[in-house]
Amino acid sequence: QREGTRRALTPEGVDDLRDAHDRTLEAFAIASQVGVRIAMGTDSSGTLCPFGAHARELELYVEHGMTPEEALTTATATAAALLQREHQIGKLAAGFAGDVVVVTGDVLSDIRLLGDQSNIAHVLTAGVDRSGCLAAAASVLS
């Protein structure tokens, strides 16, 4: 609700957002119970899920029953498999893309560490350290 009112939604829009939220949680529970593979991602236009806020999705997965390891797998191996790119991305192995986020702390104990940019020590894409780009993006978004 807070996010909706901050984004100038009407009271009806906030109610619709709340209903969609509740249906999403119900669908998530059912999908998890029957073994549907879940991949992290969004079809949001960016209005309600701004750039850089996707770690919150992993937090929500954990809050609603996944282990931190299962949640992380939705963003790595499962996403790669669903994109039919599991031989190129989704794990750390020779010949893979080499995209890595290095986090200070143990995300398997506290998934919320991913959502705090001060815990992001390094970002590598294709094996190249892009941490400076992350800092520049954070200052632009602030």
Folded structure, characterized:
Strands 1-2-3 form a 3-stranded antiparallel beta sheet. It has helices at 2-6, 11-34, 55-63, 68-75, 77-82, 131-141, and strands at residues 100-103, 120-125, 128-129. The two termini are 22 Å apart. Helix 3 (55-63) runs antiparallel to helix 4 (68-75). The chain has one domain (37-141). The chain contains 6 helices and 3 strands; from the N terminus they run αααααβββα. The longest helix is centred in the N-terminal third of the chain and has 24 residues, at 11-34.
The secondary-structure class comes to mainly alpha
Order of helices and strands: HHHHHEEEH
What is the domain total for the residues? 1
Shape: globular
Which consecutive residue ranges, at least 5 long each, have pLDDT under 50? none
Major sheet summary line: 3 strands, antiparallel
**Order of neighbouring strands in the sheet with most strands:** 1-2-3
Could you tell me the radius of gyration in angstroms?
Answer: 17 Å
Short characterization:
The chain has helices at residues 2-6, 11-34, 55-63, 68-75, 77-82, 131-141, and strands spanning 100-103, 120-125, 128-129. The chain contains six helices and three strands; from the N terminus they run αααααβββα. Helices cover 44% and strands 8% of the residues.
Which helices and strands appear, and what pairs or packs with what?
Blueprint: H1 2-6, H2 11-34, H3 55-63, H4 68-75, H5 77-82, E1 100-103, E2 120-125, E3 128-129, H6 131-141
Antiparallel strand pairs: 1-2, 2-3
Helix pairs in contact: 3-4
